[in-house]
């Protein structure tokens, strides 16, 4: 094994925990950035161009008939082929969380539809499902199995928010393990079926799953309910006859206590297990070789690389499979770095250069990296690991197409996520829309005190009606801190006393008086 450091030339702030990589035609594409996409790359998908140990990012494109794909973090992802030996494939993306920390229950299909020397175009389609549809989740796995000429996807594990009926104010956004149900998804008919197996008692997340033909092996994982990493090793066998599918589970010995591990394939039947955690505060620096045979699996310890001091002493690490026996590993950067949220990256090659040749990999690999912080085991933090799931290669495109984040406005510096006041609680990682007019940024209003400064409307306790009024009316606004000061500095305007003219008395209307002779004549005629 060899370990080599990779330098990020530009836009390293986009490479944050929770994203995935897609491998199309030996090119690697980044998906699931932290935050919402910007104008320079509205699709949120980038080509990762690695040349001479330098990494650059270039925007990718979607076809006109594609659906919207949000930047999902920690989704389940795998390849889908029409059969085990087919050349063409597409990616399945299920679940994950959005930049607003909402969990997705949608499933997408992404395929390559056009390729030129300077541009690659994808098609993204959302698939509607019926039946026992899996709930929104993250940290789970999805694999495709083939049996009797048919194919289905198998989904297992993950975490989701606490059900609404069980939430409290103090733990409103807390997460729990999903039920240990196995879901079979038939994409031809768009239906889902769930299976409850007696061998699967506890929910798992951030485990490793390896699929081969009609069998899936589930290794390791973390149980949030018990806060343990049991040495699990399950064998799921899926039979697809003409009638109902048959799903069986077998508990095998020889499992490993690990979560957030990474698997890379070095041959048709041989894999390498790298990284992960023994516990919340202990990284797993040991590597293992996994060999699959006919209905059997063998796990043995292998020679580990010579880890650098930075990797040995860091609190956490993350990464994922790059394909062809390579793994991309990342560790947090130093706090004194000029670029915030930057990470250091390494490429671990698990097989020799003479073996690094083009191979047809018919086995599907799906591994998830953990979202728990090894220090405090708190989910949904920015110290979560992110997921790589494709292979890094160079792309013969001009450097003019390279995405440059400096060419556009940086939202982190324009004030959307600033601390506007002492009681400000707006955070980019936990914020959710409060007003109906908000989409992916909090509503802000300008305080006219002094040179002026921006504050969050939600922190100022403004109602939506008042916010709309202030945005439409040409009036000055003062925040809660400066409103009293502004009133004290104002000089009261001198009020002019208005003299009211006296009211004229009402004149009585004049009436005509009739002579007595006329009255008598009138009365005589009236009574005749």
Structure description:
This is V(D)J recombination-activating protein 2. Keywords: Chromatin regulator, DNA recombination, Metal-binding, Nucleus, Zinc, Zinc-finger. With 528 residues, the chain is mainly β. Among the domains are: 2-261, Neuraminidase (6 Propeller), CATH 2.120.10; 446-473, no CATH class. 7% of the residues lie in helices and 34% in strands. It contains five helices and 33 strands. Strand 16 and strand 17 (191-196) form a beta hairpin. The longest helix has 12 residues, at 516-527.
Number of helices: 5
Using the coordinates above, name the CATH class of one domain: Mainly Beta
Main beta-sheet strand count, sense and barrel state: 8 strands, mixed
Report the radius of gyration as a whole number of Å.
Answer: 33 Å
Report the end-to-end length measured between terminal Cα atoms: 135 Å
Looking at the structure, what is the overall shape? elongated
Number of strands: 33
Average pLDDT over all residues? 78
Strand content: 25-35%
CATH topology of one domain: Neuraminidase
Strand order of the largest sheet: 2-3-4-5-1-30-29-28
- Helical percentage: under 10%
Structural class: mainly beta
The CATH homology group name of one domain? Kelch-type beta propeller
Second rung of CATH, namely the architecture of one domain: 6 Propeller
- Spans of 5+ residues with little confidence (pLDDT < 50)? 356-363, 370-414
């Amino acid at each position: 094994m060899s370990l080599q450091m990779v330098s990020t030339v530009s836009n390293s702030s986009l490479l944050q925990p929770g994203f995935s990589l897609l491998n199309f035609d030996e090119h690697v594409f980044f998906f699931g950035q932290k935050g919402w996409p910007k104008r320079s790359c509205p699709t949120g998908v980038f080509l990762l161009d690695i040349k001479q140990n330098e990494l650059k990012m270039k925007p990718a494109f979607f076809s006109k008939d594609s659906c919207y794909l949000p930047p999902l973090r920690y989704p389940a992802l795998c390849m889908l082929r029409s059969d085990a030996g087919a050349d063409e494939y597409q990616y399945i993306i299920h679940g994950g969380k959005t930049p607003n920390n909402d969990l997705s229950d949608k499933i997408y299909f992404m395929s390559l539809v056009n390729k030129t020397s300077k541009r690659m175009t994808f098609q993204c389609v959302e698939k509607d499902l019926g039946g026992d549809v899996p709930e929104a989740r993250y940290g789970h796995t999805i694999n495709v199995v083939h049996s009797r000429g048919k194919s289905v996807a198998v989904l297992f594990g993950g975490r989701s928010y606490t059900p609404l009926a069980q939430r409290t104010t103090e733990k409103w956004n807390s997460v729990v393990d999903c039920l240990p149900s196995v879901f079979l998804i038939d994409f031809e008919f768009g239906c889902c079926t769930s299976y409850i197996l007696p061998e699967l008692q506890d929910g798992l997340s951030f485990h490793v799953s390896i699929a081969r033909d009609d069998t899936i092996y589930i290794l390791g994982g973390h149980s949030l309910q018990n806060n343990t990493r049991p040495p699990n090793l399950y064998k799921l066998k899926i039979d697809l006859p003409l009638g109902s599918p048959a799903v069986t589970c077998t508990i095998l010995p020889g499992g490993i206590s690990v979560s957030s591990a990474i698997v890379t394939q070095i041959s048709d039947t041989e894999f390498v297990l790298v990284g992960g955690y023994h516990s919340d505060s202990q990284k797993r620096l040991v590597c293992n070789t996994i060999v699959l045979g006919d209905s059997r699996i063998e796990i043995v310890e292998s020679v580990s690389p010579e880890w650098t001091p930075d990797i040995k002493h860091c609190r956490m690490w993350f990464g994922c499979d790059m394909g062809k026996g390579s793994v991309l590993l990342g560790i947090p950067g130093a706090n004194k770095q000029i670029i915030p949220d930057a990470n250091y990256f390494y490429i671990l090659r698990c097989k020799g250069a003479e073996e690094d040749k083009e191979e047809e990999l018919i086995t599907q690999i799906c591994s998830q990296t953990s979202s728990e912080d090894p220090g405090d085991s708190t989910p949904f933090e920015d110290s979560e690991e992110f997921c790589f799931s494709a292979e890094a290669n160079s792309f013969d495109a001009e450097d003019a197409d390279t995405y440059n984040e400096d060419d556009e406005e940086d939202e982190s510096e324009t004030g959307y996520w600033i601390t506007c006041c002492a009681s400000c609680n707006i955070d980019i990682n936990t914020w959710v829309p409060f007003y109906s007019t908000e989409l992916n940024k909090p509503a802000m209003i300008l305080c006219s005190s002094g040179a002026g400064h921006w504050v969050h409307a939600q922190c100022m306790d403004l109602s939506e009606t008042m916010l709309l009024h202030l945005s439409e009316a040409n009036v000055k606004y003062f925040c809660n801190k400066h409103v009293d000061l502004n009133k004290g500095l104002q000089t009261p305007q001198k009020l002019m006393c208005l003299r009211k003219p006296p009211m004229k008395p009402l004149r009585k209307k004049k009436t005509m008086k009739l002579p007595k002779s006329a009255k008598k004549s009138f009365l005589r005629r009236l009574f005749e």
